[in-house]
């Protein structure tokens, strides 16, 4: 296994955390392929959409865009397990200027053309915001079910 990441599925929520770790492996595409395969396997066992938090907290202010750009083209192809998989709702975490560059890049058509892509400074903020959104959606679904009955 290539180093450079850790994947965790939160037990009671449709949230998958992909934490990118230092040092960045030299085989960046191999790392992205491993993450994609693992994510696809988790998604195949899950019903519905899942939030995928791409967590770059470990990088602090460190620059890494030249390595990340290698994986962005793959992420935009709609391959199962990537952030462009229709079952995935991508979210980004980090304070490095390069995380902001990634978010701006994936808004471009060649890297996916996502118009809304949340960026949070911390993992805790991202998880809290997602859980709040999930709870809100469950309440709205409950209201819709009652009014349809």
Question: How many domains, in number, for the residues?
Answer: 1
Characterize the biggest β-sheet: 5 strands, mixed
Low-confidence stretches: none
What is the CATH C level class, in words?
Answer: Alpha Beta
Estimated radius of gyration: 16 Å
Order of helices and strands: EEHEHEHEH
CATH fold field value: Transcription Regulator spoIIAA
Distance between the termini: 51 Å
Number of helices: 4
**Mean pLDDT reading:** 86
Principal-axes geometry comes out as globular
Relevant CATH superfamily:
STAS domain
Fraction of residues in β-strands: 15-25%
Q: What share of residues is helical?
A: 40-55%
Spatial order of strands in the largest sheet = 1-2-3-4-5
By CATH, the architecture is named 2-Layer Sandwich
Task: Note the main attributes of this structure.
single chain; 149 residues; alpha/beta; Transcription Regulator spoIIAA; five-stranded mixed sheet; 4 helices; 5 strands; globular
